[in-house]
Design brief:
The complex is a heterodimer of chains A (364) and B (426). Chain A is of the alpha+beta class. Chain A folds into 2 domains: 226 residues, Rossmann fold; 126 residues, RNA polymerase II/Efflux pump adaptor protein, barrel-sandwich hybrid domain (OB fold (Dihydrolipoamide Acetyltransferase, E2P), Beta Barrel). Helix content of chain A is 23%, strand content 34%. In chain A, the strands form 4 sheets. A 6-stranded mixed β-sheet of chain A has the order 6-7-8-3-9-10, with helices on both faces. In chain A, a hairpin with an 8-residue loop joins strand 1 and strand 2. In chain A, helix 2 packs across helix 3, helix 2 packs parallel to helix 4 and helix 3 packs across helix 4. In chain B, helix 5 crosses helix 7 and helix 16 packs antiparallel against helix 17. Chain B folds into 3 domains: 31 residues, no CATH class; 105 residues, no CATH class; 221 residues, MetI-like fold (Orthogonal Bundle), CATH 1.10.3720. The two termini of chain B are 52 Å apart. Classes of the chains: A alpha+beta (364), B mainly alpha (426).
């Protein structure tokens, strides 16, 4: 991925502005490998959909160049790019049957009839809708429409498929099911997929790598587990998964670790990931499930906190505490069937390892 | 518990669903809904009354007038009875009794001053009858037997078989004469036949009305489609401004707009002057753009354009741009994406707009009257002429009825082909 050659898609210092005053995408450099499942994740307005639209050819890049298989495509119209695309609301043609929808990309390529039928059948079988060829899209459920949209984007064997929040309109259960199906289709076909979503679960479930967008910039580009375990900055830590924030000042640097003094004077040891050095402001990021309510000596950090609220959630108990002036401090206690002596209003010592808390940039 | 509940509200032994108190569920439901129905009926009652009084009843009255023919029976009742025994094809004049009855009827009609009206009515069937009745006037009232010779003395037309045939033919209280006239046919002594070539006007006028309406509808579609597309796809602020421009003609008087076209299109008008100034045409060969069909088409296309644009716009507004994008991403070029994906989805709008414009134009009156000259007038202008000038309301009603029938027929055909459900006005 470090090499530029051979990438399926390459963004080279791409910028995009709609009004000539603000940049929606700021200097984007990104390589997408062949056969990779890359997700662009970010809040709305972060520039991820704009990137997708530039790649599809519906928006011109204001500056920079996009390469598809090492071929610059800035001046290639969308219909000549050969990229399959699944749209947010599926965009199935309502006046055509499912089979006609699938035939469309084959017809415009002048494919002969028997080949068309063979491919349509194969694509429909792939999404388990073999019997639905003659239905109109309106006669299908949301999940079925979704599958037709996927089948249509794949029926002409594109090397690259773009998906623009394709599961946004489905209910939770169906969404999870479709996530696995899309993942399996990707594994079976070996196509490259660029997937845009604002749902971090989707991103973590399906992707090889996730590009977290904010403010027109990729904040971090990593595999899902790296993203969760080792966020590079406060935004990523906050955006991916649940996160506790504690703000303070670096008092001592020690190899890969640093000492941080919180605003109330508590001293913590943390992994120094993104700090300016001694005296710099920092935000400590800490996952709720890594905190122990019965700390041992292995935990470098011991802190006093007051239990504000207990919520029973079956597999775990969610404890809201006030720690170092932050009363939104969440601790997840796994339900092992033991009775915890946790009570509302109780003050107790909690603890965690230094490697589980990351000292990141101050701005969150 | 479950079984008790089932007994109470479920199907009873006879298979009828019953409510908790044992009354059949259907009756209970009807009773519950009756109040609601009554309330909504009361809400529309004023409008219903208004429409019935001012719209449905006049239309029914007009429809009836197209076949109504009481005037002959009312004015000369005895003659009508006496003429029943007369064989019109015998080649002989009616008997003395008929003439006697006629003299009596005529005298009464003269007293009531209704004989000229009857003459006017019979004149529709046979030119000259009006003059005959007027001329016979007072003299006929003073006749002494034998009446036959007396009448023939007043005017020898009374001795013509055709005169009496016309009266006998016009005797029934219902007539198809107006409808026959409206389609350029007539009933002569030789039976039903088309009028002589030179006297036919209405069929041609109907044809012209249809043809021009189709031309106007097509022009509206060709001009309106791109505008509607633009309106539906521009950013809101720009499209609002454009929409005001589209609606502006709506807020201007129809008469003003039509007169403006007169100023623009006449031979010494703005358009011709500009073309001459640009050297495109010679000043001696200025275009005739008004007081003919061209004028009607131009002015009416302009006036009816919003009726095409608005339904198109409202349909296009609902078509997500992602359809065309999807088509392009699937490999379709701009034209294919438009023709195979965008256009079919606008068909309901085209249908609605076309049917609206066509029906409006088929009955249009003011504009053809003002800018149509003689070659650009519609059937409606002829109807207006018969209503207000020739006072032949029966013929006007028959023409109107045919027009109404045509529109309904087109509506039916359209429903069969496109389906009325596919028409969207918003």
């Amino acid at each position: 991925m470090s090499s530029n050659r051979g990438a399926a898609v390459r963004f080279e210092s791409v910028q995009k502005s709609y009004d000539g005053e603000t940049l929606v995408v700021k200097n984007l450099n990104l390589d997408i490998a062949r056969g990779e499942f890359l997700t662009m994740l970010g809040p709305s307005g972060s520039g991820k959909t704009t990137c997708l639209m530039m790649l599809a050819g519906f928006e011109p890049a204001t500056h920079g160049e996009i390469f598809l298989n090492d071929r610059p495509i800035n001046n290639v119209p969308p219909h000549k790019r050969g990229i399959g695309m699944v749209f947010q609301n599926y965009a199935l043609f309502p006046h055509m049957s499912v089979a006609e929808n699938l035939a469309f990309p084959l017809q415009v390529r002048g494919m002969d009839r028997s080949e068309q039928e063979r491919r349509i059948k194969r694509a429909l079988d792939m999404v388990e809708l073999g019997r639905f060829g003659s239905r109109r899209p309106a006669q299908l459920s949301g999940g079925q429409q979704q599958r037709v949209a996927v089948a249509r984007a794949l029926v002409f064997d594109p090397e690259l498929v773009l998906m623009d929040e394709p599961l946004g309109a489905l209910d939770k259960q169906l969404r999870e099911q479709m996530q696995y199906e899309i993942k399996h289709i990707h594994e079976n076909l070996g196509v490259s997929i660029v997937y845009v979503t604002h749902d971090q679960t989707e991103a973590l479930t399906m992707s090889d790598r996730v590009a977290v967008f904010n403010d027109g910039v990729i904040q971090q580009l990593s595999a899902p587990d790296v993203l969760y375990e080792n966020p590079q900055n406060s935004f990523v830590a906050q955006f991916i998964g649940e996160n506790n924030k504690l703000t303070g000042e670096v008092t001592e640097m020690n190899g890969g670790q640093c000492k941080v003094r919180l605003e109330d004077g508590t001293e913590l040891v943390a992994d120094a990931v993104n700090v300016d050095g001694v005296g710099g402001k920092t935000t400590i990021s800490l996952r709720p499930e890594r905190i122990e309510v019965v700390p041992t000596d292995q935990h470098e950090n011991h802190v006093e906190g007051m239990v504000e609220e207990l919520i029973y959630l079956g597999d775990h108990i969610r404890v809201r505490m006030k720690v170092a002036g932050n009363d939104e401090f969440i601790v997840k206690v796994r339900n092992r069937g033991e009775r915890w002596d946790l009570e509302q209003g109780q003050t107790r010592t909690i603890g965690w390892s230094a490697r589980d808390c990351k000292a990141l940039d101050a701005v969150a | 518990m479950t079984s008790t509940t089932t007994d109470q509200i479920g199907a009873s032994g006879d298979g009828i669903m019953r409510a908790a108190d044992g009354t059949p569920l259907k009756r209970s439901l009807a009773r519950a809904l009756r109040r609601e129905k009554l309330r909504s009926f009361l809400l529309i009652l004023p409008l219903l009354a208004f429409i019935t009084l001012t719209f449905l009843m006049p239309i029914a009255d007009m429809l009836f007038r197209s076949v109504e023919n009481g005037i002959v029976q009312e004015t000369i009742p005895r003659t009508v009875v006496a003429l029943k025994d007369w064989d019109a094809s015998s080649g002989e004049l009616p008997s003395e009794e008929v003439f006697a009855a006629f003299q009596q009827d005529f005298t009464e009609a003269f007293k009531n001053k209704t004989h000229t009206r009857l003459g006017l009515r019979l004149n529709y069937d046979e030119p000259g009858m009006s003059g005959l009745f007027r001329k016979s006037g007072r003299k006929a009232t003073q006749l002494e037997p034998p009446y036959r010779e007396g009448f023939i003395d007043i005017d020898q037309d009374w001795g013509k078989l055709e005169t009496w045939r016309v009266i006998k033919r016009a005797s029934p209280s219902l007539t198809d004469g107006y409808f026959l006239a409206a389609v350029d046919a007539e009933r002569t002594s030789d039976g039903l036949q088309m009028k002589p070539e030179k006297e036919r006007i209405y069929l041609y006028l109907f044809w012209r009305t249809m043809f021009l309406s189709i031309v106007i509808t097509v022009s509206c579609l060709l001009l309106g489609y791109p505008i509607a597309y633009l309106l539906a796809n521009l950013p809101l602020r720009t499209s609002n401004l454009l929409m005001i421009l589209v609606l502006l003609p709506f807020w201007t008087s129809l008469l003003v707009r039509t007169s403006a076209w007169k100023v623009l299109l006449q031979q010494q008008g703005v358009v011709n002057d500009t073309l001459v100034w640009l050297g495109i045409i010679d000043t001696t060969s200025r275009l005739e753009l008004i007081n003919n069909q061209t004028g009607t088409i131009i002015a009416m296309t302009h006036i009816l354009l919003p009726f095409m644009i608005l339904p198109l716009f409202s349909v296009m507004k609902t078509i997500s741009p992602s359809y065309v994008r999807a088509a392009k991403s699937l490999g379709a070029n701009d034209w294919t994406a438009f023709w195979r994906v965008y256009f079919p989805q606008t068909v309901p709008g085209i249908g609605a707009g076309a049917i609206l414009v066509f029906i409006l134009s088929i009955g249009y009156y003011i504009t053809p009257e003002l800018v149509g000259g003689t070659s650009g007038i519609f059937i409606s202008n002829r109807i207006a002429y018969h209503i207000s000038t020739s006072l032949n309301w029966g013929l006007a009603a028959a023409l109107g009825t045919i027009l109404l029938g045509l529109v309904l027929l087109l509506f039916y055909v359209y429903d069969k082909i496109v389906g009325i459900d596919n028409v969207k006005l918003g």
